[in-house]
Write a structure and sequence with these properties.
Blueprint (H helix, E strand, L loop, with lengths): L3 H10 L10 H7 L3 H12 L7 E11 L2 E13 L2 E7 L1 H5 L22 E7 L5 E4 L6 E4 L6 E5 L3 H15 L30 E4 L5 E4 L2 H14 L11 E12 L8 E11 L2 E7 L19 E8 L3 E6 L8 E5 L6 H7 L6
Parallel strand pairs: 5-9
Antiparallel strand pairs: 1-2, 1-7, 2-3, 3-4, 5-6, 6-7, 8-9, 10-11, 11-12, 12-13, 14-15
Helix pairs in contact: 1-3
């Protein structure tokens, strides 16, 4: 350990997405290659001597306790735990969560000293993994609210690769075997017999960690929600969701010295007649078992919606992935789509 192939793979994966900004401390980590990266892991992150680094991924993450703060993290998977190496700035971004993060090192103001905090989720504490629609994100759940993290990969390949690596590492864990008889083929039964309601697809891993995948009903629920936001003339049967993707909306900051822009996370949904942007709650649903009350906001909140027939042109940037798209809509005086989007049915 480590093999030449693993060293090469981890080095290739150690690249910060170009559109996201990180602190100097994480830039230092992204600059490490091969052996230096493995030595850094064992010298600064690993908790026990004999654990092996198996996978590295850069991803935006959300914590259950701070659902509004998306932060860039270097995610390291070892044979013992999942480590989230975070920006120091994240600790200060949400001051009222002071009990969540230990701030004893936050007085290091020396400019040559760059602090990162590391959140550790031990594999033995792992209970379930929820994979989001179209593998755009996944949520790791432990035994308490402090141990729920969503990785917003915005990339089905990265999600799939991480899940495969996680399953492989979990197979190495020595856990007490399940009582006989064991499920015939690892798949739990679809739904509980007493309700007849279709549950999400569950894969019970040999380590007894549940891997939960969305079923067709989630797309149906989403289509129903989208139809509600439209003008009411749409036949739900004919409404097809053509595309669901986690993206960023670019907001240009006026009056700044440079032409800077801020990225607002959005869920883009394309139907055969409309284009929608939603603010989605990626961390609170489905409700964890210990949750005593529903989340404060709905899973999907409409941010914007436009008719495809009003689309004038699409401008494409020439930069490499991720691609920037600008949708230009006709400036129509009477946008009948937007009228019922802003109507408050329960107001005065």
């Amino acid at each position: 350990y480590p093999s030449e192939f693993l060293m090469q793979k981890i080095t290739e994966d150690n690249q910060i997405p170009v559109h996201l900004h990180v602190s100097v401390s994480l830039q230092y980590v992204a600059g490490l290659k091969g052996n230096a990266l493995v030595e850094f892991f064992h010298g600064n992150i690993a908790e026990v001597e004999n654990e092996e680094l198996r996978h590295l991924m850069w991803s935006s993450v959300l914590f259950y306790k701070t659902p509004n703060v998306e932060v860039m993290a270097c995610v390291l998977l070892s044979t013992k735990a999942v480590y989230f190496l975070l920006d120091d700035s994240f600790i200060h971004a949400d001051e009222h969560q002071s009990d969540f993060w230990n701030k004893e090192n936050s007085d290091c103001e020396n400019s040559s000293f760059h602090l990162s905090c590391c959140f550790v989720l031990k594999l033995n504490d792992l209970q379930s993994v929820n994979v989001g629609l179209f593998d755009q994100y996944f949520r790791i759940t432990g035994h308490s609210a402090d141990h729920i993290v969503t990785c917003l990969t915005r990339d089905s390949y990265n999600t799939h690769t991480f899940i495969q690596q996680l399953m492989a590492v979990l197979s190495l864990l020595a856990r007490t075997p399940s009582p006989e008889p064991v499920d015939k083929d690892f798949y739990s039964e679809f739904g509980s017999k007493n309700t007849g309601k279709m549950e999400n697809y569950e894969l019970i891993h040999s380590s007894r960690v549940k891997f939960i995948y969305p079923n067709e009903e989630e797309i149906g629920d989403l289509a129903f929600l989208v139809a509600e936001k439209m003008d009411g003339l749409t036949n739900l049967q004919s409404l097809n969701i053509l595309l669901y993707v986690l993206a960023f909306q670019v907001n240009h900051v006026e009056g700044s010295a440079q032409n800077t822009s801020s990225l607002q996370p959005k869920t883009l949904i394309l139907t055969s007649s409309d284009l929608f942007l939603f603010d989605e709650d990626y961390i609170s649903y489905p409700l964890p078992e210990f949750a005593k009350e529903p989340p404060k906001r709905d899973k999907y909140q409409l941010a914007d919606g436009r008719r495809i027939r009003d689309l004038d042109r699409v401008l494409m940037g020439y930069q490499t992935y991720p691609q920037a798209l600008t949708f230009v809509f006709d400036d129509i005086q009477n946008q009948d789509l937007m009228q019922n989007l802003t109507l408050d049915h329960f107001g005065e």
